[in-house]
């Protein structure tokens, strides 16, 4: 049986897959080719140190997952990137508890960078920190 952390991360990946035409990978290496619509790679991130309540014993996490957002196209690259970030924000706003799997979900602002690629269209990429608030009775879960 998966841990609450894994259940929440998989639910987040499923939520991100609702963004049309943009593949979502989970913890994978950057592929050699980026689809024209863009690409998202969800990294597990860091659950951090939990807050603890003792009666009943609960561990309260503010888990920082990372979403890599990548667009590589010669035409309208900046506009495509902006639309993709907007779609991600809309998907998150539509389900901030991942259907009750976590207490709250929030995305922080991305910091886009332009990466030149020799012999190909440049890449626009950003890491979008996504904070997952949840509680569990097992510190290892």
| SSE order, one letter for each helix or strand | HEEEEHEEE
Number of strands: 7
Give the count of structural domains.
1
CATH superfamily: Phage tail protein-like
Number of helices: 2
Structural class assignment:
alpha+beta
What report would you give on this structure?
The chain has 141 residues and is α+β, with helices and mostly antiparallel strands. It has a single domain (4-136), classed as STM4215-like. It is 22% helix and 37% strand. The protein has helices at 4-16, 77-94, and strands at residues 24-26, 39-46, 51-54, 57-72, 104-107, 113-115, 123-136. Strands 1, 2, 3, 4, 5, 6 and 7 form a seven-stranded mixed β-sheet that branches. The chain is elongated.
Q: Can you lay out the helices and strands and say which pair or pack?
A:
Elements: H1 4-16, E1 24-26, E2 39-46, E3 51-54, E4 57-72, H2 77-94, E5 104-107, E6 113-115, E7 123-136
Parallel strand pairs: 1-2
Antiparallel strand pairs: 2-4, 3-4, 4-7, 5-7, 6-7
């Amino acid at each position: 049986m998966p841990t609450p952390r894994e259940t929440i991360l998989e639910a987040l990946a499923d939520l991100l897959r609702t963004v049309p035409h943009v593949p979502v990978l989970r913890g994978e290496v950057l592929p050699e080719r980026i689809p024209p619509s863009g690409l998202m790679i969800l990294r597990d991130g860091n659950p951090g140190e939990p807050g603890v309540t003792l009666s009943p014993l609960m561990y309260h996490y503010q888990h920082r997952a990372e979403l890599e957002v990548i667009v590589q196209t010669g035409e309208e690259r900046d506009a495509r990137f902006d639309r993709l970030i907007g779609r991600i924000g809309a998907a998150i706003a539509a389900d901030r508890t991942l259907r009750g799997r976590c207490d709250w979900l929030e995305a922080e602002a991305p910091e886009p960078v332009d990466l030149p690629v020799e012999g190909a269209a440049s890449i626009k990429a950003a890491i979008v920190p996504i904070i997952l608030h949840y509680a569990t009775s097992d510190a290892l879960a």
